[in-house]
Fold:
Amino acid sequence: MSRFPRNLQPAVARSLDLWHKMVEEKDLGELHTIVHPDAVFRSPMAYTAYGPAPALILVLTTVIRVFENFTYHRELTSDDGLNIVLEFSAEIGDRKLKGIDLIRFNEDGQIIEFEVMVRPMSGLQALGAEMGKRLGDKLPAG
Structure:
C-alpha cells in the first residue's frame, strides 16, 4: 500500500504502487507492464520527448542506477486521478539535487507520459553528464 494519501483511479493506484515498489527495490523489471506502447519521456536535458515505450524504459532503468540516496517526499494528484507529481531528492556523486516526476496515466493505469524536472543547475549538469556517458549512443540528442 502507498505511504501517501491519494485520490486516484483504481488502475492508476495499482500502477503507482508497483512503481514505488520497483523504485524502492531499484529494479524496474516490471516497468513494461505499466507503460503504454506509445508512451513518451520528457527529459530535463532535452526539449524533444523520447518515445515510444522502449526509450522511456531505457531512460528510467538507467537513471535508477545513476541516482544515489533517491527518496520521494511528496505526492500530488490531479482532480481526475490520472496525473501524479512526485517530489524527490537524490545525489549523483557529490552533487545533491531535487526534482519532480510528472506522470500522466491513461484510465487503464498505463503511463503515457513521464516528465522529469531537476534543480539546481549543478545537479542537472551532473545528471546530464552521467546519463550522457551511459546513453549518449543510444538516444538522439534533444
